[in-house]
């Protein structure tokens, strides 16, 4: 379990560093994204959708404020197109992250954890808890990408990964896009409440997993 937490922590630090660098340079700030979507709205809702899809797919490589982007997509493109765009972008990011990690993740694993027995143990531990970790990964912006990559590295069955990913992604994107569609600059309350409730819900789930799932596994290893 220690090896699993170590690798996930290193991946989280990498994604967090990309977020800090990009935001420090002002390239993908909320203000910039909002300006792009405002300009795109004057052209077509499909252009807005294309930008939302691209940004959420980019989240696989550079951490972006996914929930805010989903809500902005709902605000500028409406709940249906916004939700569809958010789902497609997030789904693509997850599947590509899984695929890249499945085929090339061993290189990272060999650098971080050189012992073969510990590598196999890490894969086994993630397969045991991976579905729940994916389902609760929306507790933090960085966790979804980390769990998608971990699913690939651990060689979780692709169908298991996709079903888990879709189970959490579909309702999450629908709720976020709808909240954005009924919000406005004069009334941002729906978006704010949704962000707080969603984050709190997944955080509670993650804390329960940490308390009753991870600790139970660690205790059984002693």
UniProtKB/TrEMBL annotation:
UniProt keyword annotation of Membrane present: yes
Family annotation (PANTHER family): ALKALINE PHOSPHATASE LIKE PROTEIN, UNDECAPRENYL PHOSPHATE TRANSPORTER A
Domain VTT: 64-181
Top-level division of the source organism's lineage: Bacteria
Organism: Enterovibrio gelatinilyticus
Principal subcellular localisation of the protein: membrane
Protein name per UniProt: VTT domain-containing protein
Transmembrane segments: 7-30, 42-64, 76-100, 158-179, 191-209
């Amino acid at each position: 379990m220690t090896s699993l937490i170590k690798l996930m922590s290193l991946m989280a630090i990498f994604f967090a560093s990309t977020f800090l660098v990009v935001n420090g340079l002002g390239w993908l700030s909320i203000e910039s994204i909002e300006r792009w979507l405002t300009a795109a709205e004057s052209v077509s809702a499909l252009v807005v959708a294309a930008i939302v899809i691209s940004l959420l797919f980019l989240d696989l490589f550079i951490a972006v404020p996914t929930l805010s982007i989903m809500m902005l997509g709902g605000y500028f493109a409406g709940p249906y197109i916004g939700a569809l765009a958010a789902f497609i972008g997030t789904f693509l990011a997850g599947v590509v992250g899984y695929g890249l990690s499945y085929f090339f993740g061993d290189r990272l694993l060999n650098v971080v954890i050189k012992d073969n027995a510990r590598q196999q143990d890490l894969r086994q531990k993630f397969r045991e808890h991976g579905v729940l970790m994916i389902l609760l990964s929306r507790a933090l912006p960085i966790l979804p990408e980390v769990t998608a990559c971990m699913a690939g590295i651990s060689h979780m069955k692709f169908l298991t990964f996709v079903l888990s990913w879709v189970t959490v992604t579909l309702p999450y994107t629908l709720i976020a896009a709808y909240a954005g569609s009924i919000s406005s600059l004069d009334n941002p309350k729906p978006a704010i409440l949704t962000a707080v409730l969603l984050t709190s819900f997944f955080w509670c789930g993650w804390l329960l997993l940490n308390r009753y799932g991870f600790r139970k596994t660690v205790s059984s290893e002693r």
